[in-house]
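User: Fold this; tokens only.

Assistant: Input:
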Amino acid sequence: MRKILLYISLFLNLLFIAALIWSVMRYGGLRAVIQKLTNPGVVVNYQNQKAMYAEFPVPPGAIVFLGNSLTEAGQWAEWFGSPVIYNRGIPGDHCDGIRERLTVALGPEPQAVFLMAGINDLAYHDPQTVVKKYEALVEEIHTQHPAARLYLLSILPVNNKAWYVPIDNQAIDEVNAAIRKLAEKLKVPYVDLHQKMAGSDGQLRKELTVDGVHLTAEGYKIWLEGIRMMVETELANSQQQKTRDDQ
């Protein structure tokens, strides 16, 4: 009887450990869990932002900017002067998190999606793992919205010489190379903003960032110019569709 109880106890302990490991991996790995425990404000803000987006659904035909804090800080609709542009970035988000909130973030039928993702993942995972997560995200976007035009934006460089940033630019380069290949495979545009913001040393130019990762107004000007023609084309397509619908 004691042996049976011992086996049952051992089995339950192993089951608990397996569940704990699964939970840790589910939330981005050990470093991600530690980050969330030590920075509860980020988690609260993340959940609040998700809830706010759910209260203001994206309508059909929208042009959606999707990503993390870099995207969230951009005033895209104001800068391009269009109400059909929707910002669905959330600070701290990563590829898995974005994938899980796609239904709300993109609405029923987006016209176009400008995706920038992966920088937060690199704080916790190696480039190969991040590439797999990124590919899964892109695959899910295509699965849910095969007619939407998708623009894959490069991950921006960081400046970890002037600031402490736990991400290596070589890792960013590896992921960007994979994003470029994925864009070629899917025959969608790859927008290389990285080269526009990196200095000769490969670092994010100091005048373009406030903390080594996030951008100054000058940084966003470069981003805007890098996508202007694509966004204006999408806005023209949107206007043509509206004209046809009104006829």
